[in-house]
Amino acid sequence: MVSENTDLKDFKLRPMKCECNYLSKSDGSAILSQGHTVSLVSVNGPLDVKMQSQSIEKATLEVLFSSKGGKPTVGDRYKEHVIRQTCETAILGSLYPRTGITVTIQELEDQGGFLACCINCSCLALLNAGLAMRHTFAAVSCAIDESGNIQLDPARDQLDTARANMTFVFDSREKSLVTGFTEGSYSEDAYSEAVERCRAASHLVFAFYKEIVSKYSNVIG
Amino acid sequence: MNVSVGDVVLPGDSCQEIATIGEKSKVILGPGLRKEVNGIFITKAGTLRKRAPNTFWVDNYQKRYIPSRGENVIGIVTQKAGDIFRVDVGGSCSASLSYLSFEGATKKNRPKVVIGDVVYAKMLVASKDMEPEIVCVDSHGKKGRLGVLEDGFVFKCSLNLIRKILNPECPLLNSLKNEWPFELAAGMNGRIWIKANTMRETIALGNAILASEYHSNDEIKSMCSNIASILAGHIS
């Protein structure tokens, strides 16, 4: 289940490489690198959870984020929250009532666009776990530099000089915006242009998902 | 995106083909498919399959078991509570097994089941809102192949592998059974129980099953004869 996609370079997204089922013990896992940014996600569930956190109508989703240092910061908790909300819209939790689904994310290398990498990797891990989902989701990050140019999927050095950086998540059905995460200052026009540029780039990520799934479903078939 | 049978599908894809057939006749939607107001949607990633006349499902990779009625599973007895046993079948909550659902069991004549025993049972009740219930008898009160599995060795694998080896077209078990004697029970919950005469044979059998996950039918055949010749001592 190893795959790489180098044609993405032509479309100004950094090359993505992924391995599904990277961990043997978890129900679903994926390791994804986008350029030099790498994250590892493990999905477990549906599992039994504590009485207090059970919901009678849908599965309880829990996202755990571990940074390289190991100490969780306020920023990490915020990222956890963003990823949880994104995954919750996609998973059909009503099919697994009174259970819990745990998504554990491990930072391996952050060279820019880390949130997007985490979200894409979570989606791949959820697909690998075989959980029922409404749609898949793809995150694309972009940066706005001093002169107002939009740079898709920026690397670390481009982010350092950027005025603002944004991450957008789109669903696979209507390509509608699921999550927006922005930092820095920008104009309203720049924002809407950035959304459109990312939306256009998101089909590359969806095509990448399809390539990976077709690679392994042909083998296990 | 619109997909048709045989394609690789992702959650969120819609299938117009099924919806069109559904207007005329009855369609059975298997795992990975879902009817919504505006069409049939895919919920799992894999290959869309069809069996005549109108059954559709998605063949996806999965390791976690979701209980489903009528499937044979391998469970481990974890608790004895009054007149039921709690059995871990790998799902989100443990299944219950009544002591009366064994062959010949009565209130006086209790079956000999202790905590830690491995049982091969059939899912009687499985719904997302209820605790699953398993039984060790069929509807005639006969045990058939169900019941407590003595000795042997249990290991876990993906749910796909179980479906693959149980498929009549898979040559694995047919090639292995001619090589050396063994017993095997495959639970749809991703657990396999095996028993052979020696430890060496048991290990060879377990390895053969696990290795066949990513092999084609021809590769499986050559692997089986390879393992058999190693086991027979022709090659060290």
Automatic annotation (TrEMBL), chain A:
Pfam families hit by this protein: RNase_PH, RNase_PH_C
Keyword terms of this UniProt record: Exosome, Nucleus, rRNA processing
One GO cellular component term noted in the UniProt record for this chain: cytoplasmic exosome (RNase complex)
Keyword Endoplasmic reticulum among record annotations: no
Recorded family membership: Belongs to the RNase PH family.
The UniProt record lists the keyword Zinc: no
Protein known as: Exosome complex component RRP46
Location within or outside the cell: Nucleus
Broad class of the protein's primary localization: nucleus
Gene3D superfamilies registered for this protein in UniProt: GHMP Kinase, N-terminal domain
Domain named Exoribonuclease phosphorolytic: residues: 13-131, 136-196
Organism field: Trichoplusia ni
GO molecular function: RNA binding
An example Gene Ontology biological process: rRNA processing
Automatic annotation (TrEMBL), chain B:
Top-level taxonomic group: Eukaryota
Record InterPro entries: Exosome_RNA_bind1/RRP40/RRP4, KH_dom_type_1, KH_dom_type_1_sf, NA-bd_OB-fold, RRP40_KH-I, Rrp40_N_euk, Rrp40_S1
Domain K Homology: 152-198
A GO CC term assigned to this protein in UniProt: nucleolus
Domain (Exosome complex exonuclease Rrp40 N-terminal) ranges: 27-64
Major location (coarse): cytoplasm
A family per Pfam: Rrp40_N
Coiled coil: none
Keyword entries, A-Z: Cytoplasm, Exosome, Nucleus, RNA-binding, rRNA processing
Locations listed in the record: Cytoplasm; Nucleus, Nucleolus
Name of the featured protein: Exosome complex component RRP40
